[in-house]
Amino acid sequence: MYKKLKVGIKDCSFGNNVTIVEPVNIYGCSIGDNCFIGPFVEIQKDVIIGKRTKVQSHSFICELVTIGDNCFIGHGVMFINDLFSKGGPAQGDKTLWKRTRIGNRVSIGSNATILPVKICDDVVIGAGAVVTKNIEISGVYAGNPARRLKK
Length: 151
Ligand SMILES: CC(C)(COP(=O)(O)OP(=O)(O)OC[C@H]1O[C@@H](n2cnc3c(N)ncnc32)[C@H](O)[C@@H]1OP(=O)(O)O)[C@@H](O)C(=O)NCCC(=O)NCCS
Prior knowledge:
Strand order of the largest sheet: 3-6-9-12-15-18-20-21
Number of helices: 0
Radius of gyration: 15 Å
Distance between the termini: 55 Å
Number of domains: 1
Oligomer: single chain
Helix content: under 10%
CATH architecture: 3 Solenoid
Shape: globular
Bound molecules: coenzyme A
């Protein structure tokens, strides 16, 4: 016996000219004009994505994430809102979840992991980076933990 839940597009708000390549699992989120969402992407409820932002295949954008305009989210980028701050998963206790805010013109390389942080405008995050702290100065960041490579 098993319970089968379907992926799909549910209760989202879309701007004009949004392209989505199915299958996706996106629900309760808001996606601005001219965005592109690639296949096998999950976007959870209350996520807000600005205009002209591209989300490439296999990325996961969790609750409490906001992404600005003209951003590029590469393939397989993982956002995190639960830091296991009590020694394990929050088990649905959303008071333990933390927020992420991504500015405008932020490009995130494939397979990067973004912990709950703020990233300012005009930032590049390298492939495979793990961003553990707020980024307040524009530039190129890479590595685990992510550090600034150049301005
Ligand atoms: C981070 C990035 C933007 C840097 O590019 P760049 O400015 O041309 O940097 P360079 O190639 O000159 O590398 C500079 C140094 O950073 C290192 N570096 C580059 N990218 C890195 C990465 N992702 N993680 C860790 N180190 C990295 C290089 O090894 C080099 O180290 P060294 O000085 O010790 O030799 C680029 O390497 C990157 O990761 N781009 C992401 C692309 C992507 O994911 N696209 C998705 C669509 S396909």
